Amino acid sequence: MYTKNFSELIYSSDIQEDFIFKLKIHHNIFSKSIKSGTIYLDKYIFTDQPVEGAKICNISEGDIIAMLEKDRLEVKKKEGIKVKRKVILIAENDKNNIKLFDSISDCIAFLNTIAPSNKTTLYRYIKSGKSYHGFIGQ
Questions:
Q1: Is 40 left (phi over 0), alpha (psi -120 to 50) or beta?
Q2: Which residues are within 8 A (CB) of 12 and not within 5 positions of it... i.e. 6 or more apart?
Q3: Using 50, 70 and 90 to split pLDDT, how confident is the model at 86?
Q4: pTM above 0.90?
Q5: What percent of the chain has pLDDT over 90?
Q6: For labelling alongside 21, which of 12, 63, 64, 113 has CA 20 to 30 A away?
Q7: Mean per-residue pLDDT, 23-50
Q8: Is 86 exposed, middle or buried (0-12, 13-18, 19+ CB in 10 A)?
Q9: 62, 57, 59: which is closest to 96 by C-alpha?
Q10: Do the domain assignments include residue 34?
Q11: Domain interval for residue 13
């Protein structure tokens, strides 16, 4: 996965399922981009061949997943599609421990299994970038 101008390599894998299951990219979209060069989320492009001269980005898998989720939300908002507030929690001590929630309520239900939690406090911690019950929210 490269930036659309092929200047940076964001993510690579020899296994197509990594893109589909780890990065949550629909298989049809992924396949179409490989075959035709379609740009994904107006920012990324997939290829099955390495691109010479592309800078390799050292971004964790968790950060890539979070970045793609934010980009998907931006595209939906631009297109006027109503979206619930999705929440991504990344464990403070393990950047590969990522929890994705379809709503604030689902996230609060999970956090309540760790310690008492509420929406207002969660919003505040997400906005500040501080850890809440061991997780950084986005």
A1: beta
A2: 1
A3: confident
A4: no
A5: 40
A6: 113
A7: 90
A8: middle
A9: 62
A10: yes
A11: 2-58
Residue 113: inside a domain: yes
Please name the residues in contact with 98: beta carbons below 8 A apart, sequence gap of 6 or more. Answer: 62, 65, 66, 88, 89, 90, 91
Same domain, 50 and 91: no
Question: pLDDT of 32-44, one tens digit each?
Answer: 889 998 899 989 9
Identity at 116, one-letter amino acid code: P
Residues 53 and 91 occupy one common structural domain = no
Per the structure, the count of domains in the chain is 2
87: nearest Cα among 104, 75, 74:
104
Query: Do 52 and 92 belong to one domain?
Result: no
Helices (H), the chain: 16-17, 27-36, 61-78, 104-111, 119-128
Nearest residue to 58 (alpha-carbon basis) of 21, 101, 11: 11
Whether 71 maps to a domain, the answer reads no
Regarding beta strands 44-45 and 8-9, do their DSSP bridges make them parallel or antiparallel, or are they unpaired?
unpaired
